[in-house]
Predict the structure.
Amino acid sequence: MRKKIEAGIKLRAALEAYKGEKTMAEIGSKYGVHPNMVTRWKHELLEKGVSVFDSKKDHKAAEAQEKIDDLHKNIGELTMERDWLKKKLEILE
């Protein structure tokens, strides 16, 4: 069974890896994880760290737009299904 590692520990390990003062093996040993995990967390920090400083409005707007897109997709699927059922009903009548 995998052990769940808290986000704070991941962040501390990634920051230590970013600083470069210790090897990945040393950091992994300190936190009880494989050095590859430390490397992965470092890359995630560098890729997604910008999102911490994004304005919340941008994040909420993106979520809202994603929800709207999902709803439009559902409307399209339901419209196609309705039209298909109408055609089948006309054939049976």
About this structure: The chain has four helices and no strands. The two ends are 59 Å apart (CA to CA).
